[in-house]
Structure formats: structure tokens, C-alpha cells
Specification:
By secondary structure, the chain is mostly beta strands. Helix content is about 5%, strand content about 45%.
């Protein structure tokens, strides 16, 4: 077998390239999935089905050659879902179902939709839920292939409708179907609206957990005791975790490696995936993290930053001992980007440990951004470990001085110690530079008076 030419892990012969148009769209990698020795790649354009734009399901063989899957040629749209239904040994990817012999069936009702998530069913082992970006939820029978819409999440979760709210992912375990949407623009940033959602369905009713933008969901199923959801707000990136031991969601905050990921259109699909055995890899707001699927005492352990990047990753997976990253590299966006002619995206092949050679972990964020806070009520935990240089900035709007306890959880299990108290003058500003290399797992801030406060940490 001849080895294909690669550059820094990117194999040009495996690039996903769309047509010139018109109308020119993007050709991002929506989902990657190993299946029966092959690597399936489904890419996407910028909206619903646009026949003949070069978007399709593609199959990479063991010899690193790629083909457009003949049965799916001409089936294009925004497809970003992948799920193995083990009771029937079938893969769901986009609107397609692939059996163990690589026979493919396309579900016609799903074909024109922006299918973004597939997960197990709450009660019927022969069915799966399929989520589309405009909030349509379907039950798909994996034996009869009947597909019926059961929810309109725009109505269930009181969001503003098609084109304004993007649903992004779904996950079902522990008796709950969880969904997320990532709506966020300047009106959300200003606090004039809150259209993002983290929500769950228990079989009888829908409950909105948080009205913030969320992008991805993940976990290890019933093998462990957690569900992970990643999102963000003005203050920071967010990791919300549901733990079985206490049956509730806990908010953890993480740095933003880049503000380029803030707007709903720029986030695409940062994922939570298992890429090494029983270990999760989190791609969130321009930073990779390692993540354990286990929690102890209702607390997650071992969150650690790996590296920063500017890539938009639609998906990543393990295949034939390699880590594969799928990108969304260049989009003409119709006529809005005239300096880009050809929609294209690359595939990167390497090893998980190669990620440590990417950009050094750095970022900024914190528990508060002009947030009303109450005396003696601590903030959410904010990640501190894995960064070399650290500084905290604090402001508030009270007329008199306010003291803030900076507390650290150096073991990572939810027990806090006061590191230092910072007194900030009325309507003033205070800061503290931590010693180089100082690290605890989490840091939080507790005000001693009611006020509207900002607490942001810069990590370099």
C-alpha cells in the first residue's frame, strides 16, 4: 500500500471539497464514524438540502482511499449526527442507516432536515430519537424504519422558531432525554434575551435546566454516572454535569481560549467524545480538555486543559489506532466571502498525544460578568489547573468597599479553603497576580456584600 502524502497530519487527497456553485456554500465535516473497518465522513452545506453542491456521504477505506458512497450521491444538507444502534447492529449517520454489510438506507422524511443528533430511546430498545436543528424530534424505528415526529422543541421550550434558534445535540440516559441549543448573538450578550437551552424530558414533561447557549452533550451511558453538556455565556465557557449520585446538574466554568467561538454560527459542533478507552476528549471554545466520565461524591475529577487551537471541528474520532479530526476550513458563504472560491475542509490524522504539541493552554473568563451577587454566596467553580500564569480582576458597583474571598479547591473534590481576601473600594477595581505556577484545581469567589460584580481571570 502506498502511503498518501500528508502535511502536519492533514491528508490533501482526503479533503472534503464542494462545488463552486452557484450558490456556493460550505463543505464542513459534520460527523466522522468508524464502521466495519471503514471511516464514514458526512459533510454539510450551510443550510438545508441544495442539490448538486458536492456535499455527500463519503467512505474512507483501509488503504486511505476515499469514495463518494454511490447510494447517497445527491443527498446533501446539514447533517452532523452519528450513532450506533447496537440491538440491530446499524449505524445512523445523517439521514442514512448503514448495516453491518455496508448496505445503506436513506430515511426520506429526514433527508430535507438539518439532522444534528441521534440517541437511544427512553422506553423502546428498537427505536432511536433523531433531532433536527429547527427543533424537530423524531422517533425512528430501527427495524421497520418508520419515522414519526413526536416533538416541536420550538414550542415545547418557548424559543423563537426556525432560523433563529439552532438545536445542536441530544443524549438519552438515566431516564432523561437531554437536548441543547446554541442561540447567542448581541441581544443575548446584552442580556435582552436568553434563547439558548439546556433542557430535559423525563417521559412526561420537558424542563428547561438553563437558558444559556449549549452546543454538545456526551457521556459513557449507564457504564458511568454522568452526563456532560458544554456551553458558554458572557463570563466564561461552561461545563454542566449531571451526576447520578445526587440527581442534579452542577455548573463548572472554564476559560475561553478564543472569543471567535462566541457567536452561534461560529461554534458549529464542539464535541465531547471518547477517543481513548474510557476517557473523554472535550473540544470547547478553542481548547481541548481531557475529561473523566466518572464522578465521586457528585463532583467531577481530572478536568485538565491540553492545548488551544483556532480550528472549527465538526467531529473527531478514533480509527485504526489514530485520532481523526474533521474540520470546517473554508467557506465562500455565497458572495459574502469573495476571497474564498472553493468550499473545502480537511481531515487530520495523528495520535491523541499529538494534541499536546498544539498551542499552549491559555485563556480568560471567570465566574461573573456584571453579575448580581449575594453576600456569602459563592460563585460557580472556575478551572485553575494546567495554566502557568494567572491573574484575577474584580470590580463592583457598590458605593462602599466590598471584600471578596478568593477560595481554592486544591484537591478537586469540593472542599474549599480561603486563599486570600481582596478588598475593593467603592465602585472600584482590584486585582491579584498569583505566583507563577500556582495551581489549584478550582477557584471561586465569595462576596461579603450584595452588589453587581465582575470577576475575571486571565491565564497566560
Amino acid at each position: 500500500m502506498s502511503v498518501p502524502v500528508s502535511f502536519s497530519g492533514v491528508v490533501p487527497s482526503l479533503a472534503q471539497v464542494g462545488d463552486l456553485g452557484p450558490s456556493r456554500s460550505e463543505c464542513g465535516v459534520g460527523a466522522l464514524m468508524p464502521w466495519q473497518g471503514k471511516l464514514y465522513v458526512i459533510n454539510y452545506n450551510s443550510h438545508k438540502e441544495r442539490s448538486g453542491r458536492g456535499v455527500s456521504l463519503r467512505r474512507i477505506h483501509e488503504d486511505m482511499t476515499m469514495e463518494i458512497v454511490p447510494q447517497t450521491k445527491g443527498v446533501d444538507g446539514t447533517y452532523t449526527n452519528r450513532f450506533v444502534h447496537y440491538p440491530t447492529s446499524q449505524l445512523v449517520i445523517g439521514p442514512h442507516i448503514i448495516d453491518r454489510d455496508h448496505n445503506i438506507r436513506t430515511i426520506d422524511v429526514l433527508r430535507p432536515l438539518r439532522v444534528c443528533g441521534t440517541t437511544r430511546h427512553l422506553t423502546d430498545a428498537n427505536k432511536v430519537y433523531v433531532l433536527a436543528m429547527e427543533g424537530e424530534v423524531f422517533e425512528l424505528d430501527m427495524t421497520t424504519f418508520a419515522c414519526e415526529q413526536v416533538f416541536d422543541l420550538q414550542k415545547e421550550l418557548s424559543t423563537e422558531g426556525e432560523g433563529k434558534v439552532h438545536f445542536k445535540d441530544c443524549y438519552c440516559h438515566f431516564g432523561k432525554l437531554v437536548v441543547v441549543s446554541n442561540e447567542y448573538n448581541e441581544e443575548d450578550w446584552k442580556g435582552k434575551r436568553s434563547q439558548g437551552r439546556l433542557a430535559e424530558f423525563d417521559g412526561t414533561k420537558w424542563t428547561i435546566v438553563l437558558r444559556k447557549p449549549f452546543i454538545g452533550l456526551g457521556g459513557r451511558g449507564s457504564f458511568t454516572d454522568t452526563i456532560f453538556a458544554n456551553g458558554w455565556d458572557q463570563a466564561s465557557a461552561i461545563l454542566n454535569v449531571w451526576t447520578k449520585s445526587d440527581g442534579k446538574w452542577t455548573t463548572y466554568r472554564l476559560p475561553k481560549a478564543s472569543h471567535c467561538f462566541d457567536h452561534k454560527w461560529q461554534t458549529e459542533w464542539p464535541r465531547i467524545r471518547e477517543t481513548e478507552h474510557e476517557r473523554l476528549l472535550l473540544d470547547h471554545h478553542g481548547m481541548f480538555y481531557e475529561l473523566s466520565p466518572w464522578a465521586y461524591g457528585g463532583r467531577i475529577w481530572g478536568v485538565r486543559p491540553i492545548s488551544t487551537h483556532l480550528w472549527v471541528h465538526g467531529d473527531f474520532c478514533s480509527w485504526r489506532g489514530m485520532l481523526v479530526l474533521g474540520a470546517d476550513n473554508a467557506s465562500p458563504s455565497g458572495a459574502d466571502n469573495p476571497l474564498c472560491a472553493e468550499p473545502q475542509s480537511g481531515l487530520w490524522f495523528g495520535k491523541t498525544d499529538d494534541l499536546w504539541n498544539f498551542g499552549k493552554p491559555s485563556g480568560w473568563g471567570g465566574p461573573w460578568w456584571e453579575t448580581p451577587v449575594k453576600a456569602n454566596e459563592p460563585s460557580d467553580p472556575y478551572l485553575m489547573t494546567g495554566f502557568e500564569h494567572k491573574c484575577i480582576h474584580i470590580t463592583h458597583d457598590a458605593d462602599t468597599a466590598v471584600k471578596f474571598d478568593v477560595e481554592v479547591d486544591f484537591m478537586g473534590h469540593g472542599k474549599w479553603s480561603t486563599y486570600q481576601t481582596i478588598e475593593v473600594a467603592g465602585k472600584g477595581y482590584g486585582y491579584h497576580v498569583f505566583p507563577t505556577g500556582f495551581s489549584a484545581h478550582w477557584v471561586r469567589v465569595t462576596p461579603k456584600s450584595d452588589c453587581v460584580a465582575t470577576a475575571q481571570l486571565v491565564y497566560t
